[in-house]
Amino acid sequence: MSSSAPVVRASHLKEDLEALSKLGPTVEAAVRARIAPASLALVLEAARSDWLPLAVNVEMAEAVYAEAGAQRVRAWGRESFLVSLTAFFRPLLQAITAIFHPSPAAICRFSPRAWLALYRNCGSLQIIFEAGAQELRIALVDFPEPLRRTPFLTSFAGTFEGVFDHCEYDGKVEMEPAVDGKNPGYVVSWKRRER
User: Fold this and answer.
1) CA 182: distance to chain centroid?
2) Which contiguous run of DSSP H or E holds residue 22?
3) I need a labelling partner for 28 at 20 to 30 A (CA). Which of 144, 179, 191, 195 fits?
4) Superfamily, domain 100-192
5) What is the pLDDT confidence band of residue 100, given thresholds at 50, 70 and 90?
6) Has this prediction a pTM greater than 0.85?
7) pLDDT of 7-62, one tens digit each?
8) How many C-beta atoms surround the C-beta of residue 132 within 10 A?
9) How far apart are CA 177 and CA 152, in angstroms?
């Protein structure tokens, strides 16, 4: 594999596979049946720190989207994020929540670094936030074409929905189409949860 090829950390793909169980056994089996056996073996046999071809990540997202639809691929993205918070990103989450009750903006500010820890040669995330605002925009900058397809974009929106499980806010994540044909994104908005 070339050093400039888009790759994803094996730990993330393992978490994606684990999150399939949240879709129920029937959907999980159907999704796994859509994924090439060689791709599944690659993920299962890899060390968590290995880098695997981005195509495997895209194949998974497209399989979930085909079998479960937009709403459930989004739920799968959220579940994968929540699984990662018990594994790969656990130290980061503990550090953030030990200091204060974070806002969605505080948690989302870490997403550009998190992206670079999980993806290589796959573009970057840019957070656009105005002080005092109750929303922010996440721009997906220079993402490879497979990551700009609906299945991945929809599941990735679910990732940001998982933020609300770790703060005292309710909110929503809306997909925002690319204005230049290249950099789609999301608008994340929130309000303090009523007790």
Assistant:
1) 19
2) none
3) 144
4) Trafficking protein particle complex subunit 3 (3.30.1380.20)
5) low
6) yes
7) 999 999 999 999 999 999 999 999 999 999 999 999 999 999 999 999 999 999 99
8) 5
9) 13
